[in-house]
Every structure is written in structure tokens, then in C-alpha cells.
Amino acid sequence: MNPETQRVVVFVILLFLIIVNVFDLLCPQLISDGSVVYAEALWDHVTMDDQELGFKAGDVIEVMDATNKEWWWGRILDSEGWFPASFVRLRVNQDEPMEDYPLKVEGGKEDDSSSGTRRFGMGQTTKDQMRTNVINEIISTERDYIKHLKDICEGYIKQCRKRADMFTEEQLKTIFGNIEDIYRCQKKFVKALEKKFNKDHPHLSEVGSCFLEYQTEFQIYSEYCNNHPNACMELSRLTKVNKYVYFFEACRLLQKMIDISLDGFLLTPVQKICKYPLQLAELLKYTNPQHRDFKDVEAALNAMKNVAQLINERKRRLENIDKIAQWQSSIEDWEGEDVLVRSSELIYSGELTKISHPQAKSQQRMFFLFDHQLVCCKKDLLRRDILYYKSRINMDDMEILDVEDGKDKDFNISVKNAFKLHCRDAEEVHLFCAKKPEQKQRWLKAFENERRQVQLDQETGFSITEVQKKQAMLNASKQHHTGKPKAITRPYYDFLMRQKHPTLPTTLPQQQVFMLAEPKRKPSNFWQNISRLTPFRK
């Protein structure tokens, strides 16, 4: 590229950035004036709350409220909710037809004729050059991310553990989740990437296999994403006390971290795991089918999409435990352990006729099939919306037997639309009859789904902590006693939207801020000499 062409390219890029930045500033004003403002999703957004707006990379979002810098309110078709502003890019040409913008990624491929110009604001270029850019971005962002995780682990967690008078281990687990596990995983991942990086010819690098190798380990992000709202709420509670505000600021200064508050640092892993599918889609787009890395990148893209979907699914499962707890609290005469002790998913429910030995007495009952157990309830004779607990069956010991219409030899009665649950280790047999053949088939399918769900949970390591179970039951109990539905709130988003980096009083000496991070009973030469370090001299 000759010097004249380079100057033109630089000018075009600068002009494009200026236009975008100006539009960002004008966005709230345009919305308040009644103008319709659209934004393009840069990468998938895995929802973290019922009031979040989920979307995939390439989706077009109507921005309805952009008064807050970090979180905007938007709409896609009939769905509305909050979403992080950093996940989207505003359309420069707001009059552009919706059907033409943006180019949809389908299987990681787009129209090569215009994608380079549209995405990078540059003229025509070769696939090799563009692939080099994507590879360099993946490597550089991973290195930055490792530095970010290291700062959190060494700058915050390490210092917090020195202050047993301020933090318990349970609090630290709530605030930081499993970010130390993520740090260890990402260190290994970035080393694997660097081994595959071809410094002389970056476009020949074969990084797809690295994502395939670590796709299972990336599932640890599920626990972190599910815990993140709890982390924000705990931080919100602590930072109401100045001592904690100053302590977190001291940790940041001592680690020489950028000027962002702790909640901002803790949001990064959530954003990171959602960005991988976008980067891989870009990489696949500029990878020729003949490239040795093509098949691995294609497989890696699908794998990382599955990881994001798994995280979203686990988040949905955790939301379900509140609903299950509320359901149990509405059941009269409940006996035995809570349903959440063994289950976390309602698979199917409906009315069946249960036939018992030895009198072959039939009873109409409501049945609720959860993973691991089938709960039997009886309807109130007068108020049919009230249920009484009767019994439960351990599904881990049962096998399903389809029963043909006619006389059953075990119960010596004629049955129709029937099936049995037979205990493998005992002579226990349960006979059920549905009203219609299609209802029976739905139940048989539900039992298959229950076993499949249990197996999937075992393979993926999904589980619910005792703390989460107890909290769900406690919330349901409080709601049941008050008789009032839980108020619709969005404390997680209110917290995020009002959070700003703490501004310390000008009258507070900086050395006093540092002393907050010093253990009271274990003085250290490092802390005593910290004022001598050049960056912190008064």
C-alpha cells in the first residue's frame, strides 16, 4: 500500500470513528425528540435477569432509552429489556432499510463482496490480511484478559483474605465467585493459543483446535455468570460503608489497575465468554475452505455457541428453583425433604388414575414429574386449586413399562391407556391410567426426558448449591406467609446503573486510604514502605 493510499485509509477510519462517537452523544437527544434509533448487536448477549434483553450477534435493536451510559433499554420485535451498551454498535445511517442491515452471520459466513468494507470501514482487502487482523485481535485480547484476571485475583482477592476482620470466606465466594478457577483455565488457554500462533505468517495460524480443546473447561463460566447478580448485590451492600469503599480503592491503587470500580472489573468475564462466538465467526469468515484451520474453526464456532447456550440454560434452571420452591410452599400437608434437595427441573405434570395393590383401588391424583422424583398430590374436594401432598416416587430406581389395553395380569383388572413404574430392586409396582392415548404418550415421552435430563446434568456437572436451595425456600416461605406476590424489582440493574467509580474526599490523605488495606494485627514491611514507591508519593 503506497503512502497516499495509507493516508486516505487513515482519514476514512478517523472520519468513521468521529461520526460514530458524535452519534453516540446525540443518541439520548434523538430518542427524547421522538426519533427511532437502531443499534446492531456486536456479539451474543446471554441474559442475566428477566428484565434483560437477550440477542445474538447481528440482531438489530431499537434503542428506547440511552440516558444511562452502561445500560440501555431496547426492543426486538415484542421483547423489551435492559442490555449493556458495550454489546452493540449504533447504526450510522438510521434510514437504512432493516432488511439490508446488518448482514446476518449464518454458519459463520457472510457475503465476502462487502463484509470487509462494512465491518472494518476499509476498502477491499485480501482474506489473508483480514484473517491476520482477526488472529492478532484474538491473541491480544486474551493477553489483556489474563492481565485483567491477574489484577482481580492478586489486587483484590489476595488483599481481602488478609482482612478477616472485614471479609468472611463466604462473602469472598459471593463477590468473586469462581474467578480464580477461570484465571487458571485462561492461563492455560492463552499458552495453547500462543503455541499455535505463527509470528511470521499470522494468517496461517491454526487456533481453532485450541477452542475445541477447552470447550468443556469454558463451562466453568456458567457458575460465574449465575453468581454475578449476587456479587453485585453484595458489593452494593458493602459499599454503603465508607471503610469498604476506601479499601477497594486502596487495592486498585496498590495493584496499579485502571480507573474502574470493582463491579466493572467483575463484569468482564460475563462479556468475555459471550464474545468468543463473534470472534470465531469473524475468523471463519476470512478463512478459506482450503485452509488447514477451516474445519476446526467451523467446529469451534459451533462449540462456543453451545457453551453460551449451556450458560443460558443453566441460568434458566437456577431461575426455576425459585418457582419450584414457591410451588412447594403452596402444597398443603407437605412431608419429608424439600423437593429441591434432589430436583431442580419440573419435566411434566398432569392428572392420572393411580391403581394400588392389593385392593386395586383407583384414585384420581395430580402428578408432578421432576428430575429424580415423581410427586403425587390430591385436589381439594371443594377448592380444586388447593393441593394436598400424598406421596412421592424415586425415579432413579424405576423403569417404565408400557401396558397394552386389556386385562393386566399383575393387578387382575382391565386397563386402558396404562403404563407401569417398576422398581428394579424390589417388587414395588405402580400402575397408572391416562384418560386418552395421546396423554399416555406424552407421559411416556416425559419419563424419557427425565432420564435424559438426569444424564445430561451428570455429564455437564450441573448442580445447585445448598445456599441457593435454602435461599429459594426461605424466599418462598416469606412470600407464602405474607400472601403477597413478590414485588417486581430490578435491584441488579439499579445497582449497575447507579454505580460510578468512588470519588474519595479530597481531605482524606492517600496514605490513610492505603492503611485500610493493611491488616491490623499483622503489620508488614511491604505496607510500611508503600509510601516510598514513586507512584504513590504525596
UniProtKB/TrEMBL annotation:
SUPFAM superfamilies: DBL homology domain (DH-domain) (SSF48065), PH domain-like (SSF50729), SH3-domain (SSF50044). One of its GO terms (molecular function) is guanyl-nucleotide exchange factor activity. GO terms for cellular component: cytoplasm. The keyword Iron-sulfur does not apply. It is found in: Cytoplasm. It comes from the Eukaryota. Residues 101-123 are annotated as: Disordered. SMART domains: PH, RhoGEF, SH3. Pfam families: RhoGEF, SH3_1, SOS1_NGEF_PH. One of its GO terms (biological process) is intracellular signal transduction. The keyword Coiled coil does not apply. Residues 345-452 form the PH domain. Residues 101-112 have a biased composition (Basic and acidic residues). InterPro entries: DBL_dom_sf, DH_dom, GDS_CDC24_CS, PH-like_dom_sf, PH_domain, SH3-like_dom_sf, SH3_domain, SOS1_NGEF_PH. Residues 130-314 form the DH domain. Keywords: Cytoplasm, Guanine-nucleotide releasing factor, Membrane, SH3 domain, Transmembrane, Transmembrane helix. Residues 34-93 form the SH3 domain. PROSITE patterns: DH_1, DH_2, PH_DOMAIN, SH3. Its main location: cytoplasm. This is Rho guanine nucleotide exchange factor 4. It comes from Mycteria americana (Wood stork). The lineage of its organism: Eukaryota, Metazoa, Chordata, Craniata, Vertebrata.
